[in-house]
Fold:
Amino acid sequence: MRIYSVLRNIYNVGYALARLKFLGNELIFAVILFTMVIPFQITLIPMYILMVKFGWVDTYLSLIVPGMINSFGILLFRQFFRDIPQDLIDAARIDGCNEFQILFRIIWPLSKPVLITVGILSFMGSWNDVLWPLLVIRLETLMTMPQLVTLFAIGGQAANQMGVQLAATTLLAAPIIIIYSFFQKYFIESMATSGLKN
Structure:
């Protein structure tokens, strides 16, 4: 569910920045690019204070909401949408399509590779994250798997048990390897088509 909402938000922002002309379009894109160079550690304390004030500590909202927008995903979607020929969109407008129909009937089927790429990258980012869940989740029933494995390995429960530690790290790597092996064709196609050209 989280990956779907992240993809939908990033998809819409990327389309708006690539195809809609409005005042401040380039400024908004520049601000989004600027956020890519800000280290997560700088925003960690303000984000934690926000989670406490909202009462989201020890809830799934503290894990979902901060990751709803991904700057790199917006960049990939924007580049992909800018590479779509304007003639295709103009032909859809002539046929009577409005902006939403163009977005979901014409462009959505074409954007499968970039959707899968952003989905994989978003999943990897949230799956591998340990520091943020350690701060906002303390209930063991809500902990993420990487968080549980970290506490298991560092907390002393797996001390001097190399086999158990290796099994835990294999379980952590397995979902990403499986997902990538199924979707690597789309991932490579997306990187080739929506790279840094334009």
Summary: The chain has a mean pLDDT of 84.
